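Run log // design_07
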């Protein structure tokens, strides 16, 4: 008979914990949730004050029986599910099921799976935090109500099987709005003038950019304006008017939160949010390492806090001084953002002495990459800033001003280990300018003018969408990944390279929801709901009261929409394509893969056709029309209309005018041959 029974969510987490505890302790896994709302109906008793109607999840009968049997044998059952609202809810459901079986049930949590943290948690058990459970229930109930009430609108006006959701609908709205901005964008012409100037003392050249006239910034919008300036500086002397020298510090980024980890893994490793969270889960729960057994390598990966423990701070100091020297260490504290829950530490390595490179062979490629990212980011966060010497120079040419900036890295500091990525194009490091003096003349060696056009805002990537969701207070660390995964799986959004683009279906669904449920898909409203969940978690608000206040206005909106839909006769948009089977003009319909053509004579005539997307560049092989197709996973490729009958053109890359093409196998053969020659 086991003295203690510890229940966690997953077998890998169970294996990691087992080795810290004695033989009289048994560790088992619940395999995630064991109870949930039914899939076949709403499962919320609206008349009985929104009581959720939980059922045991199908297929978990044997597991529940086994958990009850083990609970009967133990003196104490410790529910050690994850330390967040979802984990608290799983623990609550487990306690409900095991209540009659176990003599004592208690709750334990740990932010990292280490011997110290696990043993400390078992010595300090607590009751289940009902406030956290209620916050999870409030989210689950509201999301279920919204989904069940809004989805029928999409079924009536678009097609059956579509669904709407509270946070996902706002995410789609943001992506659609960005696409509309891009479509409406009108490029504006602008010009830059550059000069290459030579310092006669050092013989070094440097580049300066046109700034304006008489110290006032001037924007150039036409060639005529450029020519006027060039005429005015023709034969001018270039005199150094002002030199400013300074020192600039660049400070390290804080340790990872869920959001910043997802963003960096996307930028630097090319990981999707789903992949990042899956790999991080594995690192948290434990990886088998020779001579150490199964080890949890990182702290809990769902957090919005940048706080780190004093113990972690101390080991970071030791590691930095040992490897880089005292001059690289700086004890740093990071301010949490205003609405951070701060229940857990930032994401960091659990054992700083386990260097990623030392255990590379024990990790998968993805685990190694993400662990190294977390490890280096954490250490860098406790290091000295990088220091640059900077110089800003103003050069006069008659009354016109040119400016040049230079910088030189004097002390690398944290950048020895880690530099944070950005969503914009990486700027090249500016080189230091020559040691220029005021009133010095520099010689013109080259003058260049460049026409450019303003560019539309960039489409969201997974990383930049997470950033904006977090900034606007939409969702929380645990929701970013499932939200974006859902809108991709439902084909409301698709990926073009790394960019998120709304599909035709996504645009239609968004339009319908904005027209009929403008409050629910409102960014501010969604953020307000998130704050209310936080207040429930803190015990400041009663969860059913919040749902009552939400449901009244929402139900009225639903009733109004249903009444209006009764009066609406849905008419399909008619195309100019004739059905070759019956002669009727085909209409546009929407399926899970977007827009397609269908015969309006259904069910007598069941003819359908895909809408073929083409590009305005001819096939580089035969001159035919190039069609855009998609793989099952949504990746675009390009194929000739005459393929495969009389043309073999097919490519992942969009063809360019005048470009020569060769089959992939030919390219592969040439590349293999080239590599062999290089080796020789």
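design_07 sequence
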């Amino acid at each position: 008979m086991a003295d203690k029974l510890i229940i966690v969510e997953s077998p890998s987490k169970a294996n990691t914990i087992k080795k810290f505890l004695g033989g009289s302790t048994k560790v088992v896994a619940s395999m995630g949730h064991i109870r949930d709302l039914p899939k076949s109906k709403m499962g919320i008793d609206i008349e009985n004050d929104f009581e959720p109607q939980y059922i045991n999840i199908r297929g978990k009968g044997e597991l529940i029986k086994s958990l009850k049997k083990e609970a009967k044998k133990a003196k104490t059952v410790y529910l050690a599910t994850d330390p967040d609202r979802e984990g608290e809810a799983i623990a609550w459901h487990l306690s409900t099921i095991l209540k009659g079986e176990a003599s004592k049930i208690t709750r334990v949590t740990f932010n990292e799976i280490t011997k110290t943290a696990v043993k400390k948690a078992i010595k300090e058990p607590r009751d289940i935090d009902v406030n956290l459970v209620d916050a999870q229930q409030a989210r689950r109930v509201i999301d279920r109500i919204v989904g069940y009430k809004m989805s029928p609108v999409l079924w009536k006006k678009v097609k059956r099987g579509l669904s709407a959701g509270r946070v996902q609908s706002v995410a789609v709205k943001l992506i659609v709005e960005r696409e509309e901005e891009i479509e409406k964008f009108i490029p504006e012409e602008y010009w830059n003038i550059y000069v290459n100037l030579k310092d006669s003392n050092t013989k070094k050249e440097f580049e300066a950019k046109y700034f304006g006239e008489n110290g006032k910034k001037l924007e150039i919008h036409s060639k005529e304006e450029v020519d006027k300036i060039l005429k005015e500086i023709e034969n001018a002397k270039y005199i150094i008017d002002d030199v400013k020298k300074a020192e600039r510090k660049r400070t390290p980024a804080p340790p990872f939160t869920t959001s910043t980890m997802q963003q960096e893994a996307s930028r630097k490793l090319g990981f999707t949010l789903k992949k990042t969270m899956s790999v991080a889960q594995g690192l948290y729960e434990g990886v088998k390492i020779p001579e150490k057994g199964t080890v949890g390598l990182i702290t809990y990966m769902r957090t919005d806090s940048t706080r780190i423990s004093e113990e972690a701070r101390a080991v970071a100091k030791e590691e930095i001084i040992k490897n880089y020297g005292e001059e690289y260490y700086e004890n740093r504290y990071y301010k949490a953002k205003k609405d951070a829950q701060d229940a857990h530490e930032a994401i960091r390595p659990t054992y700083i002495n386990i260097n990623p490179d030392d255990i590379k062979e024990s990790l998968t490629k993805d685990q190694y990459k993400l662990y190294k990212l977390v490890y280096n980011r954490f250490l860098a966060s406790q290091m000295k800033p990088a220091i640059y010497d900077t110089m800003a120079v103003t050069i006069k040419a008659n009354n016109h001003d040119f400016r040049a900036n230079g910088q030189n890295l004097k002390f690398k500091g944290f950048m020895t280990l880690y530099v944070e990525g950005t969503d914009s194009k990486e700027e090249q490091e500016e080189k230091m300018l020559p040691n220029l003096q005021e009133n010095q003349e520099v010689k013109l060696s080259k003058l260049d003018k460049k026409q450019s056009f303003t560019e539309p805002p960039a489409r969201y990537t997974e990383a930049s969408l997470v950033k904006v969701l977090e900034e606007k207070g939409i969702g929380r660390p645990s929701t970013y990944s499932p939200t974006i995964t859902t809108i991709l799986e439902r084909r409301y959004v698709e990926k073009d390279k790394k960019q998120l683009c709304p599909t035709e279906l996504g645009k239609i669904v968004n339009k319908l929801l904005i027209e009929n449920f403008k409050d629910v898909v409102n960014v501010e409203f969604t953020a307000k709901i998130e704050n209310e969940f936080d207040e429930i978690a803190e015990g400041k608000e009663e969860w059913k009261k919040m749902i009552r206040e939400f449901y009244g206005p929402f139900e009225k909106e639903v009733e109004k929409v249903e009444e209006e839909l009764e009066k609406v006769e849905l008419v399909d948009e008619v195309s100019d394509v004739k059905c070759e089977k019956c002669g009727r003009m085909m209409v546009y319909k929407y399926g899970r893969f977007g827009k397609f053509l269908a015969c309006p004579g259904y069910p007598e005539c069941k003819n359908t056709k895909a809408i073929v997307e083409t590009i305005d560049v001819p096939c580089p092989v035969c001159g035919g029309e190039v069609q855009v197709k998609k793989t099952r996973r949504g990746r675009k490729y390009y194929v000739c209309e005459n393929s495969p009958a009389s043309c073999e053109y097919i490519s992942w890359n969009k063809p360019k005018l005048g470009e020569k093409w060769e089959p992939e196998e030919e390219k592969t053969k040439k590349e293999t041959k080239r590599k062999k020659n290089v080796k020789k």
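Residues 130-157 form the longest helix (28 residues).
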